[in-house]
Design goal:
Number of strands: 20
Largest sheet: 9 strands, mixed
CATH superfamily of the largest domain: ANL, N-terminal domain
CATH topology of the largest domain: Rossmann fold
Helix content: 10-25%
Shape: globular
Strand content: 25-35%
Radius of gyration: 21 Å
Order of helices and strands: EEHEEHEHEEHEHEEEEEEEEEHEEHEH
Number of domains: 2
CATH architecture of the largest domain: 3-Layer(aba) Sandwich
C-alpha cells in the first residue's frame, strides 16, 4: 500500500492517520461530510481487514455488508486501469458523495491509490458551487451531474477529465448534456455495495456507448430469470446473483434492461418499468415514472406519473399512441405529482407505488 494520502493539499502518512481530526484539515466546507470522510479514512487504514457498509435501501431493505479492504483496492485498481490512470499526483479529486456509502468510500480509495489530492466537498445537488480549485476527477449520482450541467455555473467544471456517474439510471436528457464537459470523459458505472462498487463501465461522452464493458477479470453470465450473475476472484461473494435483468452481447458487454422486482405483469405481458420510463421520457421530453396498481381484468395496470402540470392525461395518451405498443400505453396518467426519490437519486419505487395506490 502507498505510504501517504493527500487531503486538502496536505500529505498525511498512513501511519499517522489515527490521530487525524477535523481541525487538521486546511479547508472544511461541510463539517458533517468531512467528519464522515475522516472516520472512513481512519477505519480504512486501521487494523481490521474489512469495512462495514450499508446498502442504499433503494431496491430492498437496507443491509450491512463487510467488504474486504483488499477487494476495494482491487476494484479501484481495475477501474483506474480501464480509465488509463497511472500516477496522478498533482491532480485533484472531489468527494461529493456521502463517505459512509460505497460510492463515496470508493472515491476516497481511488484518490488514495492513484495519488490524487482529495478535496472534501458537499453532498448536495450543486457540489461544485463553492469549489475554487481545479477538479480533475469526481464521482457523482445522476441528479448531481444534471443539476450542475443544467443550472450550475462553477468554472471548476471545465477542468474535469473524468466523471463517474453511478447509483441510478442515466436519462437521455442527462446524456445530451454531458458533451458540455468538453475536456472530460464521462462514464456510467455499474456496480453495487455487494460487489465492492464498480464492476463495469459504459462511456457516455465522448462517443456514447450502448453497453457496459466489464472490468478486467470480471466474468458475467445470466440465471434462468435473465438476471446478471457476477464472478470475480476479488469479490467478497462470488458468484453473486443479482436481480438486474441484462442482455449479454457477443463481445462480453451487456445492456441493462431493468430490475426483476420492477417488472409489471399487465394482461400476461411483462413490462420493464425502467425501459418504459426511458421510452416515454424520450417521447415527452420530461422526467417521468412508471408504476402499477391492481386491476381486476389485467392483474396490474400501468400508471404514468409526471411532475409537470402543463399537460392533461388525454393529450399525453394521444401522444404515446403509435409510439408505444398497446400493452405499454399507460391506463392512467397522473400529472403534477411529486416523484419520490431515495437519497441516492433513484426513484423510490415502494413510496411511489404506495402514493399512487393511495390516490386511487
Amino acid at each position: 500500500m502507498k505510504e501517504e494520502i493527500k487531503i486538502e493539499g496536505r500529505p498525511y502518512r498512513v501511519s499517522e492517520i489515527g490521530s487525524l481530526s477535523l481541525s487538521d484539515l486546511k479547508t472544511v466546507r461541510d463539517s458533517e461530510t468531512a467528519s464522515k470522510a475522516i472516520a472512513f479514512i481512519k477505519e480504512f487504514f486501521g487494523g481490521s481487514q474489512a469495512i462495514s457498509v450499508k446498502t442504499s435501501g433503494s431496491t430492498s431493505a437496507p443491509k450491512t455488508f463487510f467488504i474486504p479492504k483488499a477487494a476495494m483496492l482491487k476494484s479501484a485498481e481495475l477501474t483506474g486501469r480501464a480509465l488509463g490512470w497511472g500516477d496522478l499526483s498533482g491532480l485533484n479529486a472531489l468527494l461529493c458523495l456521502s463517505p459512509d456509502k460505497i460510492g463515496g468510500m470508493m472515491c476516497i480509495v481511488r484518490a488514495y491509490l492513484f495519488g490524487f489530492n482529495l478535496i472534501i466537498g458537499r453532498v448536495s445537488s450543486h457540489p461544485f458551487s463553492d469549489i475554487k480549485e481545479d477538479v480533475h476527477y469526481t464521482s457523482v449520482v445522476p441528479y448531481q451531474l444534471y443539476s450542475e450541467l443544467e443550472y450550475g455555473k462553477s468554472t471548476a467544471l471545465s477542468s474535469l477529465r473524468w466523471v463517474l456517474v453511478g447509483g441510478g439510471a442515466v436519462s437521455r436528457e442527462l446524456e445530451a448534456l454531458c458533451p458540455l464537459l468538453k475536456n472530460a470523459c464521462v462514464y456510467h458505472t455499474f456496480g453495487m455495495t455487494e460487489t465492492g462498487s464498480t464492476i463495469a463501465l459504459r462511456r457516455i461522452s465522448p462517443k456514447r456507448e450502448e453497453s457496459f464493458s466489464p472490468l478486467q477479470g470480471v466474468s458475467l453470465s445470466t440465471d434462468d430469470r435473465g438476471c446478471l450473475v457476477v464472478s470475480a476472484p476479488y469479490l467478497p461473494s462470488s458468484p453473486l446473483i443479482t436481480n438486474d435483468i441484462v442482455s449479454i452481447e457477443k463481445d462480453g458487454s451487456f445492456r441493462w434492461i431493468g430490475r426483476y422486482d420492477n417488472i409489471i405483469n399487465t394482461g400476461g405481458v411483462k413490462i420493464h418499468a425502467e425501459k418504459l420510463e426511458e421510452k416515454i421520457s424520450g417521447i415527452l421530453g420530461e422526467k417521468c415514472a412508471v408504476t402499477a396498481i391492481k386491476d381486476i381484468g389485467l392483474g396490474e395496470k400501468i400508471v404514468l406519473v409526471l411532475e409537470s402540470k402543463v399537460r392533461n392525461s388525454d393529450e399525453i395518451k394521444a401522444k404515446l399512441r403509435g409510439r408505444l405498443n398497446r400493452y405499454e400505453i399507460p391506463k392512467e396518467v397522473l400529472v403534477g405529482f411529486s416523484i419520490p426519490e431515495a437519497a441516492n437519486g433513484k426513484i423510490d419505487r415502494k413510496a411511489l407505488k404506495a402514493a399512487v395506490a393511495e390516490g386511487n
